[in-house]
Amino acid sequence: MEMPVPDKGVLSRKAQIVARLRTALPADAVIDATAETLAYECDALTAYRCPPMAVVLPRTTQEVSAALSICHEEEVPVVPRASGTSLSGGALPTADCVILGTSRLTDVLETDYDNRFIRVQTGRTNLSVSGAVEENDFFYAPDPSSQLACAIAGNIAMNSGGAHCLKYGVTTNNLMGVTLVLMDGTVVELGGAHLDAGGLDLLGVICGSEGQLGVVTEATLRILRKPEGARPILMGFDSNEIAGACVADIIKAGIMPVAIEFMDRPILELVEDFAKAGYPDCEALLIVEVEGSDDECDAQLARIKDIANRHNPVELREAADEDQAARIWLGRKSAFGAVGRVADYICLDGTIPIAELPNVLTGMRSLSEKYGLKVGNVFHAGDGNLHPLIMFDANKPGDLELCEAMGADILRLCVDLGGCLSGEHGVGVEKRDLMLDQFTHDDLEAQMQVKDVFDPKWLLNPAKVFPLSLTLSRREARQ
Ligand SMILES: Cc1cc2nc3c(=O)[nH]c(=O)nc-3n(C[C@H](O)[C@H](O)[C@H](O)COP(=O)(O)OP(=O)(O)OC[C@H]3O[C@@H](n4cnc5c(N)ncnc54)[C@H](O)[C@@H]3O)c2cc1C
Fold first, then answer.
1. Is residue 175 part of a domain?
2. CATH of residue 347
3. What is the domain extent for residue 287?
């Protein structure tokens, strides 16, 4: 994976730039010692690493604005970083950049139950947003599996989703407003404590923009009343294709579970070894969860079981109580850890139209044979968001490159089937050079013109999202 050559002019002015940042921010908010900047060298896409030139850790919107305005004047690239759990290398530094970390922006600023919103600083973790309102029986719906660690800032930048987004939508459907600091330090308010806003939908442009357009420091989020109850059912099937067809039939029937999660045999074997969740011996397993009163859950589950029975399941197991529900979810929640215990892996993220699920799973099996690498599937099947995990050996020369080539072919397959390169993990550096498989030059030029407006010097989050070859002239214009 290629990255741009660091700007020697910026590197030679490091001492001056750091000194200016120290005059504007508290002493402990600027880090430039190599031993300490190393901690920021990668995010969760650990295959790529590069320590930044310096790190700033502001506590307020005003401090973010001051840091950005200095970097703008000094023409220093800035990489916004929240909790660093990006799986697409979205927060990967360049050697000449300042990392702008939002981990100290954690306050709850306002909670309004009558109008069902909470306003927070965006370094606050996803789970602790629900934590702040649970006493009053409310919650924040988007629930990435990383929700204990990942922050609202990263969720907004990546338009993150999660298991329960089938019913509640992803971040963009639960975001009402943001405070955004532009690269030159200007503070902008978009949206607010009400639905929609006059004029162009700029909030929609910001959500999912991967730190390319500005730094989000505060967010107004929709909160919802907790449902009366929830009940999962586990279903084992003889093949991936049959499980895929069952998912398509549930959606086609107009039923709206909160979650439909999918795991295939390679994942199930590792998960059983690790979590001992007691899953059945089968090729593919679905966990379907419904919500509501007992009667509502019974009625939805009856229809779902009826559909599943038409696909001859190996086992159908409905949770009778909270303990059994937790056991059903245990394996799914341990899946990434179970794989990480035995192999290096890259977690892909693409979407497909739901009816193509059987086809994409068959195609993936052929690619696994072609490349000789094991692939396991664990994903949000209800909304067609795939997470194939390709396993490889980082110590074996050439294995990472093989893994990357296979990953690219899987994502091309998603695009060929009418889907998209990115579901919820963003493009980052991982899929940057595949963007031309999905978009024409003209499409990408139009997208880059949006960045021209927000960040004319192209300083924010360099070398992400857009293929390097297309951004060269814009980057050269700066130097
Ligand atoms: C085990 C595991 C499970 C995961 N499961 C899911 C899942 O179920 N669903 C899902 O969607 N994702 C998942 N992810 C991916 C990841 O957690 C999400 O992309 C998450 O939203 C990243 O949040 P973060 O706070 O860690 O952001 P970071 O990794 O720090 O940054 C992510 C992106 O946001 C930008 N950014 C950070 N802060 C700001 C800011 N203040 N303003 C503007 N841009 C900013 C960064 O530049 C970067 O491009 C998972 C990751 C792991 C490791």
1. yes
2. 3.30.70.2740
3. 228-335
> Dihedral (C-alpha) 206, 211, 212, 217: value to the nearest 10 degrees?
60
Q: How far apart are CA 190 and CA 271, in angstroms?
A: 43
For the Cβ of 151 lying below 6 angstroms from any atom of ligand 1, the answer is yes
Ligand 1 pocket residue status of 174, Cβ below 6 Å: no
Ligand 1 centroid from CA 153, angstroms: 8
Q: Which helix (H) or strand (E) holds 346?
A: strand 344-347
pTM of the model: 0.94
Q: What is the pLDDT of residues 445-461, one digit of tens each?
A: 999 999 999 999 999 99
CA–centroid distance for 334 within its chain? 18
- Ligand 1 atom closest to residue 211's alpha carbon, by position in its atom list: 44
CA distance 326 to 300: 20
Question: Residue written as tokens 């003889």?
Answer: 238
Neighbours of 140 (CB within 10 A): 26
Calculate the CA 448 to chain-centre distance. Answer: 22
- Cα–Cα distance, 159 to 170 (Å, whole number): 7
Q: Given CA atoms 466, 468, 469, 475 in this order, what sign does their dihedral have?
A: positive
